[in-house]
Amino acid sequence: MPANTLDPAAAAALLARIRDWGRELGFRQIGVAGIELAEAEARLFDWLAQGYHGEMNYMARHGALRARPAELVPGTLRVLSARLDYWPGAARGAWSVLADGQLAYLSRYALGRDYHKVVRRRLQQLAERIAAAIGPFGYRVFTDSAPVMEKPLAAQAGLGWVGKHSNLLARDGSWFFLGEMLIDLPLPVAAPPAAHCGRCRACIDVCPTQAIVAPYVVDARRCISYLTIELHGPIPLEFRRAIGNRVVGCDDCQLVCPWNRFAQPSTEADFLPRHGLDAATLVELFAWDEATYLARSEGMALRRLGYARWKRNLAVALGNAPGTPAVLAALAARRDDADAVVREHVAWALAEQAQRCGRL
């Protein structure tokens, strides 16, 4: 019997085995979703119509394809959604880093190995386990690497609910990566869990730039993660002070979420902090030349920024830092940086420091 014609009992038994194999590979959870995303598609197009995607043109480029898995991979019947936890329990406390203006804050996901590599490799291994057990079947694996609506699919697969900050949220928090396997196997689908945000609006209230413009709606153009990672040009002046010492991304909406009190540290060594980046000083990082940046960001999501955006972000953080002699010297040393965007941000930072000194 071809795998894609499994009877319900055989499909349920196979799913139980897949979940066992997933746990052996380090996945906390594996769920199964159908391929109907009409409501999510409507919300996506409304979000795009508002321009909330900013310069992330790839969000609009594939149109409805993003919400139609069977058009992305013909023959798809189900989507396996997988969760891999990443909270780095050994890292310096996030709030303590944010409170120290001399330190650089990197989003917790960016401290270790690039999650794309880790999750995609594990999903491929899972697919090979399935094929070894049932024979060849149709599949493709993705990890934030194709037009796939991973959060609505994960919610449908029973992994959690979409919180007011737009991240997927479970009763043990939101510090996890998602990956998908589009398959042609008729596995039983999960029942989506109820949402449990209630009246809480902690994530909305804490956002430094008020990017969560309504519950479940994020204007990416205001989001510090977008501004420091996705945006290639100058960071708008109105947001630079609010960025504080956040150099790569922002976790505030997750840090205040009550459900994250129940999060457990990841057991994945790949996600442990590298090169002391959980508590490095801004001055230290701003001194990196390009060769150092490339060497130390190898294999990390940090590499995606590129050296120019790395310097741009650090310049903003140094403009917000305590005006120590070391901070002022670091900025002065890059006053004539080869990159025009970096030069402009350094000039802004020096002006901020001068203005702050004038107010003291």
Overview of the molecule:
The chain is of the alpha+beta class. Among the domains are: 3-89 and 112-183, no CATH class; 281-360, Leucine-rich Repeat Variant (Alpha Horseshoe). 41% of the residues lie in helices and 11% in strands. It contains 16 helices and 10 strands. The protein has helices at 8-24, 38-49, 58-61, 69-72, 94-99, 115-134, 150-156, 202-206, 224-230, 237-243, 252-255, 282-286, 290-296, 307-320, 325-333, 340-359; strands at 29-33, 78-85, 105-106, 139-142, 161-162, 168-169, 176-183, 212-214, 217-218, 246-248. The chain has a 4-stranded antiparallel beta sheet with strand order 1-2-7-4, with helices on both faces. A hairpin with a 2-residue loop joins β8 and β9 (217-218). The longest helix is centred in the middle third of the chain and has 20 residues, at 115-134. The radius of gyration is 22 Å and the shape is elongated. It starts with 7 loop residues before the first helix and ends with a helix.
**Global morphology:** elongated
Rg computed from alpha carbons, rounded to a whole number of angstroms = 22 Å
Number of strands: 10
Average of the residue pLDDT scores: 95
Strand content: 5-15%
Summarize the structure.
The protein is α+β, with helices and mostly antiparallel strands and 360 residues long. The chain has helices at residues 8-24, 38-49, 58-61, 69-72, 94-99, 115-134, 150-156, 202-206, 224-230, 237-243, 252-255, 282-286, 290-296, 307-320, 325-333, 340-359, and strands spanning 29-33, 78-85, 105-106, 139-142, 161-162, 168-169, 176-183, 212-214, 217-218, 246-248.
